[in-house]
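Hi everyone,

Forwarding the result from last night's run.
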Amino acid sequence: MQLECDATIALAYKSPLQRARIISESWFSQNVYCLACESDGVTRTKPNTRATDFLCETCGQRYELKTFTKRPPKSLVDGAYAALISRINESTAPTLCLLGRSESWHVQSLTAIHSSFLTPWVIEQRPPLSRHARRAGWTGCNIRLDRIPPDGEIAIIDDGICLPKSEVRARFRCFLPLARLSADQRGWTTLTLSIIRTLGRSKFTLPDLYMREQQFAEAYPGNRHIQAKIRQQLQVLRDLGILSFEGGGRYLLLT
């Protein structure tokens, strides 16, 4: 990959946001490969395509590009709430690609937020625009990065170093089976994995998760069978090869 963006292509534009979009999208289209299949490139979508900037014409994987000089620590401002939630419920949400760059447009990092980890739990609805605004009533959203477990983030470029394609794709493909689940099911699975990661150890027990029941209840306040859902999600994670059952209510993280 070429890690220097061509900033000269946007000299005619005055808006910093518009310049950033043109420069970053040009770099992305020329350098980034599909994470889900063996295609070496992705294609820009038509203007105003909802919640998608790029598409792999081989496998249909969608990508949305976000660019910044300093990554937001907690949440990422996104577009229309209804459009993204609709994509999530249809299992057609894009993979978010977070492009970190210097002021001189040197690419420092590129991280993919796996599309399967975009669930209603991580999408935060913003208040609608006031009636005095040009787009009165329009409702945007924030993507809560702090609710996405480390497994959902796949590094493509890290600290200016391009990681091997085979390694990147293997990590990404590990979670593609989640796309076959409903948005609600994916939400439970990724939340369970996130809470397991907060335990800070590779070996854990079922009571360890039962002690975190309140965290599950905060995400799904209407569910009255949380412990049963936890056991169900552990089976899903086992089938994905993320953990193994050791017997007696003991589990081992494999990745």
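The domain at 7-174 is CATH 3.40.210.30 (PvuII Endonuclease; Chain A).

Cheers,
N.
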